[in-house]
Amino acid sequence: MSKELAIKSFQAVGFPTSKMEEWKYTSLKNLNEIDWSWEELNLSVASIDGLQICTLQDLLNHSTEFKAKWEGKDPILEQNPLFALNAAICENPLVLWIKEGIQIEDAVHLSVFLKQDKNTAFQSKMIVFLEKDSSFSIIESANSQGETPVFSTFVQEVFLAEGAQFKYVKEQNLSDSCTYVDQTFVYQDSNSQADTFTFSLNGGIIRNNLHFYINGEQVVSNLNGLYVPGANQLMDTHSVVDHRLPNSESNELYKGVLMGQSTGVFNGKIFVRKDAQKTNAFQSCRNVLASQKATMNTKPQLEIWADDVKCSHGTTTGQLNEESLFYMRSRGISLAAAKTLLLLAFAQEVIDTIPFEETRKSISEKIIAKIEASNDLVI
Amino acid sequence: MLSINNLHARIGEKEILKGINLEIKPGEVHAIMGPNGSGKSTLASVLAGREDYEVTEGSVIFQGKDILELAPEERAAEGIFLAFQYPVEIPGVSTTNFLKSAVNEIRKYRGEEPMDAVQFLKMFKEKMAYVNIDQSLLSRALNEGFSGGEKKRNEIFQMAVLEPKLAILDETDSGLDIDALRIVAEGVNKLKGPDNATIVVTHYQRLLDYIVPDFVHVLYKGRIVKSGTKELALELEEKGYDWIKAEVD
Ligand SMILES: Nc1ncnc2c1ncn2[C@@H]1O[C@H](COP(=O)(O)OP(=O)(O)OP(=O)(O)O)[C@@H](O)[C@H]1O
Ligand SMILES: [Mg+2]
């Protein structure tokens, strides 16, 4: 589809609104009022040993394995108007190819920078292909600057062949006038492990979609995430973990600290297909409302067709414990400092999952700063 | 140092303290005894500033200040310390980090410079010896998974670090083994001085063998119904509360 045609057909349906089940709490209706200029945002990473940076066509021409995966994947992307448009606009996706057995120790840094000056709807796309027994990590940071509205859709498709290992840290630190839709697809073959770490620190509206296809046995998928919306921010996580074959394991650890008048959404789907016996699938989503005006909407959704599986899910949303606050205050710690300590302690579990020390430290500092700053405003 | 006058407090519709009067001078140790549910912990909590309780009448003057107007953290900075009957678990916050925040906030309140890491290390070492507490306990999340006795010992360690003017020990002896009781009591005694006072809430005479009180009070149905010297505790140990209840009811 041509870019112009794609834009036309998107405009006919418009941005998703709360009338759609999947966007119930995250309406993008207001974005329909803006005359967007749709542009591709080209992404790049520094080249390092072992990493092939190429075009999609190169990869399709040179890897029959990739070609088969590419052609066999779920058409879900094309069916969603937002992502169909992204696909039509992104002519030059960033394509990263890690060949068989290549182990890349150092993480590659990827920056998604949205410059805000003329109502741009940035579209970007990344494809990562990890061949058999390779390993690779990305530390991504999404930033924006400016006050005018900005919209972005960023789609990633990650293919892990047998025994591949992939770590993906995302730090989203965007402005209040930014609406950011992130879509991560992960396709995993046997014995592969994919770990994601999604940290939503700031942003007017952030929507994180993660979709894991477990197409092999002994697969491990770890989805970690922390969102700390404040003011009027909205942060929404929609995850799908689709167990299609037996003997695999998925763990979801999500936490939210909601400040100001912010809103959080967590919708976690786990599918365990008929053939996926002996699946272990765990999901936990815990939230603290640090302000009386914040709201959290959670919806765990388990659909299990196999009979010999271990699955559990738990979602909780609570306030800070009054007993704890009194105990801390009785030792001289001010109410604001006590809240900060408790909130950070709560968030720490997810921060600690980040496997790169420097990133862990810098994300931790930003979270401390955000919680400390908003504490004065709370309640 | 502390003067409680006709103190009434309630929670919801329920009046728990019904006119408490108590005078405490620097250097004194006061024991408060009394049957379960008589209001001992309530009194301790009201003094520490727990907001669930509503003070309906009376006053509490501490070192010339009406402390009922102060937030719990301000009272702590003024020098009041409550060792909890049931210390609260604080997941994810280590005792040392917790105390560093507490000490420096109190210092800020008093207009003093914050302590640095080196000073803390030295001070913690010194205070750990008071109650014979292990470093490994202090680096764990505060009270989380601590045994009953470990929690109580940790309370006294915190007291040693914060050096309060008025320490209120709410059943610190319960849950301690015989050796721990002695160690903790010795710790409390080391912290005693001519300028600070202690309120010891207990059910057992045994603790008072170690921490010798100047006065013993019996709290019953929200009032102090009898006061005496340490001999009163011995008498209670022997006879129970029935004779006092009979006098009151
Ligand atoms: N939050 C509350 N709601 C209702 N009643 C309460 C509450 N807190 C305390 N009480 C009641 O107040 C009374 C006094 O309780 P308190 O804990 O002060 O007793 P105590 O003398 O410390 O007893 P113990 O020796 O068992 O520790 C009890 O009857 C108790 O049930
Ligand atoms: Mg009690």
From TrEMBL, chain B:
Annotated ranges, domain ABC transporter: 2-246
InterPro entries attached to this UniProt entry: AAA+_ATPase, ABC_transporter-like_ATP-bd, FeS-cluster_ATPase_SufC, P-loop_NTPase
Highest taxon above the source species: Bacteria
Statement: the UniProt record of this protein carries the keyword Iron: no
Pfam family, one: ABC_tran
GO molecular function: ATP binding; ATP hydrolysis activity
Keyword annotations: ATP-binding, Nucleotide-binding
Similarity-based family: Belongs to the ABC transporter superfamily. Ycf16 family.
Protein name: Fe-S cluster assembly ATPase SufC
Source organism of this protein record: Sandaracinomonas limnophila
Record gene name: sufC
